[in-house]
Amino acid sequence: MALDAATRTRIETDSLGSLEIPADAYWGIHTARALENFPISKRPISVYPNLVRALAMVKQASARANREIGVLDPAKADLIDAAAQRVIDGEFHDQFVVGVIQGGAGTSTNMNANEVITNVALEMAGRAKGDYGFLSPIDDTNRSQSTNDVYPTAIKVGLSLTLLTLLSELDLLRKAFLNKAAEFRDVLKVGRTQLQDAVPMTLGQEFNGFATTLGEDYNRLTENAYLMYEINMGATAIGTGITTHPAYGAAVLRHLREITGLDLETATDLVESTSDTGSFMSFSSSLKRNAIKLSKICNDLRLLSSGPQAGFGEINLPARQAGSSIMPGKVNPVIPEVVNQVAFAVAGADLTVTMAVEGGQLQLNAFEPVIAHSIFQSLTWMQQAMWTLRVNCVEGITANRERLGAMVGASVGVVTALTPFIGYAAAAALAKTALLTGHNVADLVVEAGLMSREEVAKQLSPMRLSGLEAITEALPVIHAAENVVARAED
Predict the structure, then answer these.
(1) Which residue, 75, 154, 64, is CA-closest to 121?
(2) Model pTM score
(3) For 316-333, what is each residue's pLDDT tens digit?
(4) Diameter of the chain measured on Cα atoms
(5) Is 324 a catalytic residue?
(6) What's the CATH code, domain 150-225+276-395?
């Protein structure tokens, strides 16, 4: 390593030659080559902080394991350990500059981590950056490792850490819908199937359904989290463990479990684990499921709030911004709309993951960078989408109670509640009459002598219409219903 004082660069050399590196950069020549080769995404890996932390955790665990089994000088191991901890604590993330999309199966990312942690350690030891004769990114920081076990392990740890945050936000969103369900528990409305009027329900039941489906997704995501807990540290290049000490695998697992707090396990077949990326596909699929179901909920919110005059107009979403540059007063459902778009992106990312998993060959999948980017992006966007949906939309939703009540009162769907007492044929005939004449269904039933006013009122109570109070006994079907049918047909 040589330093050019005039230009404030240092010269680093690898097997391909030499390059000038900015003197203040903690990354080195391998990272520099990646910057030249992969100007693709214009997004560095540091956009995913948990991936950077996970890389540092793997390096820290390896340093401790190497020290423990006696294959790395204790002083060097301690320097690497301390430098990695600083990265875990959030320092130097701006030095993780390689692009999220890269060739080489993640080698550039691994080397970026090796170089940054090494140069931080050198600085802590009072040495110049690039003094790799004293501490080497490959021989010391990468001791007992290969990109092919470090990179997938770091991805899994990083995804696991990120998922914890997403699950927390998902649960807050679920509780927000539950709170609205309680607020709207007595608000009757017309249910709909195939966008046509169906039987009555409460707005609270509708919002409780949203909360329940999000709770189911929470459970599925939690179950799939364990897919990320199987790691292949100790596999090195292809799973055979070449260059590692026999005790390394168990030691690095123990230290990594302690550092991450995750219930990690070493794969039983390291060759298979190094080449197979199916766990990422399953994990991505569970994210897609959550995104699509969340998008469906947002579709419902947009429909229920449509209007305000010529639409459903059942609920009001908080007005977040002016909706038009030409139509004064127009306000659009911008929050559900942005969540919809996130769902579309997650679905597309899942397809990318699927194709990348399929594209693996023999003992390694070279496309883990795009797998990692796709899933990290989905997790990050979904977390933010859930936050804005909860804070900027759901918590401020109000019900148009008068409009909902009027629609229930005019709905012929309430006649369904009377079919156990007057029969389907008579109920259908009365529904037809009500639609043609605009008369109230309850009035028509009483006028036909099929039920008393009191009995009709009892069966059409909000509690019974919404199913919150069960019908405990049935009246015999009144035979006079046949006359009602005949009159309706006339």
Answers:
(1) 75
(2) 0.86
(3) 999 888 777 678 777 888
(4) 106
(5) yes
(6) 1.20.200.10
